[in-house]
Design goal:
The complex is a heterodimer of chains A (about 425) and B (about 200). Chain A has about 425 residues and is α+β, with helices and mostly antiparallel strands. Chain A has eleven helices and 16 strands. Chain A has helices at about 90-95, 120-140, 200-215, 240-260, 285-290, 290-300, 305-335, 340-350, 355-365, 375-380, 385-400; strands spanning about 5-10, 10, 20, 30-40, 45-60, 65, 70-75, 75-80, 100, 110, 115-120, 155, 160-165, 170, 175-180, 185. In chain A, the strands form five sheets. In chain A, strands 2-15-16-12-7 form a five-stranded mixed sheet, covered by helices on one side. In chain A, α2 packs across α3, α3 (about 200-215) runs parallel beside α8 (about 340-350) and α4 (about 240-260) crosses α8. Chain A is globular, with a radius of gyration of 21 Å. Chain B is mainly beta. Chain B has a domain at about 1-75 and about 95-120 and about 155-190. In chain B, about 5% of the residues lie in helices and about 65% in strands. Chain B has two helices and nine strands. Chain B has helices spanning about 1-5, 135-140, and strands spanning about 25-35, 45-55, 65-80, 85-95, 100, 115-135, 145-165, 175-185, 190-200. In chain B, strands 1, 2, 3, 4, 5, 6, 7, 8 and 9 form a nine-stranded antiparallel sheet that branches. The longest helix of chain B is centred in the last third of the chain and has 5 residues, at about 135-140. The radius of gyration of chain B is 21 Å and the shape is elongated. Chain B starts with a helix and ends with a strand. The relative contact order of chain B is 0.23. Classes of the chains: A alpha+beta (about 425), B mainly beta (about 200). The interface of A and B includes residues 37 and 105 of A.
Chain lengths: ~425, ~200
């Protein structure tokens, strides 16, 4: 039996590579602690600089392979509908799309005073990318991630990715979590000439956030189960679930980027011309205030569109609503401490039982339950580690998303909304 | 010191030299270096240039064997990256190869002498890396870009094969070579395809 499914790339940029709908049949020194020069964001100056760092999880220095990530170079990935017509298993998918599975990378270094300095641009890009994955993983482990999850997760470095249909051609200037290969993609740069995406700690942490969401909410599934349950008919009766998942993915991924770096404007170092469109800090009502009604109005706007056209619209709106969520989390973090808020976020994915996002998605027959900001807010607030964090989250979510406190349960009783959005 | 190496003998029976072979040679060198590709492909090609000086010591061996020792220097440089982050890499390889050759009896154009050879010797490579970081957020605030450098030596070795050629004369002669050298550079291996042209005296 064949069911339509959605092939998603959770990319850091919206236009180049948002969502692609396809029909898929559903049926040296060697290790240890290494001091290395990598590009890092300096919180004192607010800019990226080459600085020495201590990497603690490398198992092979030249291959830059370790518990945090496994780089794969020289891979060629071809995504074309005809190849996927008879794919029903993960291995079949890999065989169908990986024209060249790639090879280990071979970074080169100069040893200066016991510190390894990358000897060329790609070695610096790779070393910094590994460091960024290590930082993202360390942050997630401190929030309660199981050490076995995403251990040694592959990232394809500068792969040749050809997509036929949707956004066609060779993919460049992007980074993505690609659940179908359970891996990250760090594309070659072309027009982007600022801090390379692989060296932007926030961008890598954003993608790692997608990986975390997949690992926890979908239990690491290569095709999340909801894709075979919600919106399987054309036209889709209730799009709220699939659209909300996209919003949560992008908003929460940005929240991870901020958590790992401490830099709410991490995007600007690589997408300088895009300005502050995704900045969760510095309150700006048009960017940080929204509501369930606004969300459902957008759903109505795309109801008559084809699935492809609707996906294209939502490819942008997911980031806009996502920034509202990331802004609400950031605002709560100002009162309760951002790390406590991120503790709550990761716990809400799965660890906190029947009210977790994972459980809600699994048990939701249409997506209508998760497709409600109040449901999401309850899950995150309910997973908060302490009362101040719960109340800070209540105050921010009620205000930023115009939620009725009565819908959020007793944890939000008596909480005064922040009032920035006039609620 | 190919002119000296080429001086006298030929196979199967080297002709006696009419005059003493040149003892020294200097050459300009150019090469294509195939380096390990950090990105994981088989190699990345890079142009290199350099020089070589040799001293012929063929008198230690019977004809038609040829032997010389020399100093080889190869340099290469490349810069990659975005406007925001650029990395320039310069490498200087110094080697002391010993070359053992065999002068052929076959002589094109009569005077051109050919010596296929094997060569090997110790080497060391100095790598100098220059980093330039221009974060647009910093530039917007008037901060200067960051410039840093690092350098280090990697011990190693060279070994390979080549074909020397030359036209020795009583004064300054013409020498040259084409060769394929494997360069061990710390944990990395480079393959070098080189051409040398110079003078013997």
């Amino acid at each position: 039996m064949c069911q339509p499914s959605v092939l998603r790339f959770f990319s850091v940029r919206r236009k180049a590579f948002a969502i692609l709908s396809l029909a898929i049949a559903a049926c040296a020194p060697d290790a240890g602690v290494v001091d290395m020069a990598v590009l890092q964001w300096n919180p004192d100056t607010g800019v990226y600089e080459l600085r020495e760092a201590r990497l603690t999880t490398l198992e092979d220095v030249a291959a830059l392979r370790g518990a945090a990530a496994t780089p794969i170079g020289d891979a060629e990935i071809v995504i074309e509908g005809g190849r996927l017509a008879n794919v029903s298993t993960e291995q079949q998918f890999r065989d169908a799309v990986l024209d060249n599975p790639g090879r280990p990378v071979e970074a080169q270094f100069v040893d200066q005073g016991g510190v390894l300095y990358p000897a060329d641009f790609h070695s610096l890009n790779l070393a910094t990318a590994y460091y960024n994955f290590e930082q993202a993983r360390t942050y997630a482990l401190a929030r309660g991630l199981s050490p076995e999850k995403l251990r040694g997760v592959p990232f394809y470095y500068f792969p040749t990715v050809q997509v036929f249909g949707g956004s066609s051609g060779r993919q460049v200037d992007n980074a993505a979590w690609f659940p179908l290969l359970r891996s990250f993609l760090l594309y070659p740069f072309d027009r982007l000439q600022d801090v390379p995406l692989a060296m932007n700690q926030g961008v890598v942490a954003h993608e790692y956030g997608h990986g975390l969401f997949n690992a926890e909410v979908f239990d690491g599934a290569w095709i999340p189960g909801y894709l075979g349950v919600w919106c399987t008919e054309e036209p889709c009766e209730d799009e709220r679930g699939i659209r909300m998942i996209g919003i949560l993915e992008e908003g929460f991924a940005d929240a991870w980027g901020v958590g790992v770096t401490g830099d709410p404007r991490f995007m600007r170092h690589s997408f300088f011309d895009d300005g502050d469109a995704r900045n969760p800090s510095g309150f700006f009502a048009p960017r940080h205030c929204s509501s369930q009604a606004a969300f459902e109005q957008k759903i109505q706007q795309t109801r008559r569109l084809s699935r492809a056209d609707s996906d294209a619209k939502w490819g942008e709106w997911e980031y806009q609503f996502g920034t509202v969520l990331a802004g609400a989390l950031y605002r709560a973090g100002q009162d309760a401490g951002y790390d406590r808020v991120m503790d709550a976020l990761l716990a809400s994915y799965r660890a906190s039982g029947p009210t977790s996002l994972g459980a809600i998605v699994e048990e939701d027959p249409t997506g209508a339950t998760i497709g409600n900001f109040a449901t999401v807010a309850r899950a995150v607030i309910g997973a908060a580690p302490d009362t101040p964090t719960q109340r800070a989250l209540c105050a921010a979510w009620i205000d930023r998303l115009a939620l009725d406190p009565a819908d959020l349960g007793p944890l939000c009783d008596g909480v005064v909304p922040n009032g920035e959005c006039g609620r | 010191m190919i002119g000296a190496v080429l001086a006298v003998a030929a196979l199967p029976a080297a002709a006696p030299a009419a005059e003493p072979p040149p003892r020294f040679a200097i050459e300009a060198a150019a090469a294509v270096v195939l380096r390990d590709d950090p990105q994981g492909s088989l190699f990345v090609a890079e142009p290199a240039y350099g020089a070589r000086a040799t001293v012929d010591v063929s008198e230690l061996l019977p004809d038609p064997l040829r032997l010389d020792v020399g100093l080889l220097w190869y340099a290469s440089a490349s810069t990659e990256g975005t406007f925001g982050v650029q990395v320039g890499t310069a490498r200087h390889t110094f080697a002391l190869p010993v070359r053992l050759g065999w002068e052929l009896g076959f002589r094109p154009f009569d005077a051109l002498r050919l010596v296929p050879y094997l060569g090997a010797g110790p080497a060391a490579t100095l790598t100098v890396v220059d980093y330039a970081v221009r974060d647009p957020v910093g530039l917007e605030r008037g901060l200067a870009s960051q410039e840093r450098s690092a350098s280090g030596w990697d011990p190693g070795a060279v070994y390979g094969v080549g074909l020397g050629f030359g036209v020795p004369t009583g004064g300054i002669g013409f020498v040259g070579r084409i060769e394929a050298l494997r360069l061990r550079r710390g944990p990395n291996d480079d393959m070098t395809f080189g051409l040398g042209l110079g003078a013997s005296f």
